[in-house]
Amino acid sequence: MNFHDWQALKPAAAARELRRRALALPPEQQRATMVRLPPAAELTDRFAAAPRGAPLAGVPYFLKDLFDVAGEPTLAGSTFLPEVRPTPAHDGALVTALRTAGAVLAGKAHLHEFAYGLTGENPHYGDCEHPRFPGRTTGGSSSGPAALVAGGVVPFAIGTDTAGSIRVPAAFCGLFGLRLTPRHPWIADAFPLAPGYDTAGWFTATAVDMRAAISALLGVPPGGFAPRGVYLEPAGLEADVASACRAAAAAMATEADQATHAAWAVAMAEAATHYNVLSSLEAWQVHAGWAERYRERYDPAVWQRLIRVRQWTPAQIGAAQAGAAAVGRWWADFFRGHDFLALPATPMPALTRAQFTPENRTRLLALTTPASLAGLPALTIPVPLAGGLTTGLQFVFPEMRGPAMLWILARAGR
Question: In angstroms, rounded to a whole number, what is the distance separating the alpha carbons of residues 6 and 382?
């Protein structure tokens, strides 16, 4: 069901349909994806309260559990955050904007603990699996939101993207995903991973719904011009991903020339390393006040990422800062002559748990961190592969409200 289908339902029918879809998930996936599914009466009241005539009136969404909802504890995928952070007294800025636009909060969705990971694994609530390929991950950290859209429970879900946490699940799950920009009011009051890199964003199952959400929430006007963009194919892609992305991009972008490829290869060679250093410094500052006291209650993999700050030398930090600045200069130079850059969002389709090795994590970050280091927005569209698996194309823009993203969506198919 798309936005229009949901908007055609009366409140009680919409509440029943949403619960029917949610409860059709396997029980372990209900637990892994949803923090709480409201009862029918509560959902009916929420649908009934949506302002008539608002652009997203009656469209249900799940909210990644980093964003505050008044009276509901924010867990951030952990078991102890409510013990160190009070239950919110007010809705966050993004929740308020969504309510004004008419969207209906269906519930909160789980995530990789503290958003510090690219898989859908969570030792406390369960691992999110790809709805169509059990045993493969949704990707993360916006795993619950992506699974609930890909599984057809809702047409819309809110996530965050620090280093790919919307782009990777969108690509793995065959979704459209939008990453906004750091320090925006919609992310500024969410529970942070690394505040200088965190962004808000969302998933939809169709291009039409993504266009509707962008128009309703961002007010992006349609452009009357063909934007200038190129497709760049970094090294390290699986062969089927490379050929599929190249074909998908052909309708929207010319291929980057050798000089652009060469400059990218130099500027982005260590982007993942620079990101790991700089983001971990910020992440530790978020957790430092309670980390040691609760260390046994962290996911061990998340704990190891947090304490990496102890190993960085001043020389490594300085090199990361210089490298990030060079990444920013590359993008500034590129956008003097272009409106977008297209490149694959992932080098492979959805991985199994065993395949999510440190090496594959680095391969993913090599594609996602160049935009993250520069704080740039990105739109991901799905790219089909053999056997029903998918990857994605990410389109990186110089600013959030440019018309190029609507131009791309008009050419993106479904």
Answer: 23
Q: Are strands 133-137 and 129-130 parallel, antiparallel or unpaired?
A: antiparallel
Q: What is the pLDDT of residues 6-31, one digit of tens each?
A: 999 999 999 999 999 999 999 999 99
Tell me the CATH number of domain 1-414, given options 3.60.40.10, 3.90.1210.10, 3.30.70.20, 3.90.1300.10: 3.90.1300.10
Q: Which of 170, 59, 143 is nearest to 392 (CA)?
A: 170
How would you write 262-279 as a 3-class SS string? HHHHHHCCCHHHHHHHHH
Question: Is residue 414 very low, low, confident or very high in pLDDT (cuts 50, 70, 90)?
Answer: low
Q: How far apart are CA 156 and CA 217, in angstroms?
A: 13
Domain boundaries, the chain: 1-414
> Is residue 117 helix, strand or coil?
coil
Q: Name residues whose C-beta falls within 8 Å of residue 128's C-beta, 6 or more positions apart in sequence.
A: 29, 32, 33, 110, 120, 121, 122, 137, 138, 140, 143, 144, 146, 147
Identify the bridge partners of residue 176 per DSSP, sorted by sequence position: 204
Look-up: residue for tokens 């429970």?
A: 153
Model confidence pLDDT, tens digit, residues 143-192: 999 999 999 999 999 999 999 999 999 999 999 999 999 999 999 999 99
220 pLDDT above the threshold of 90: no
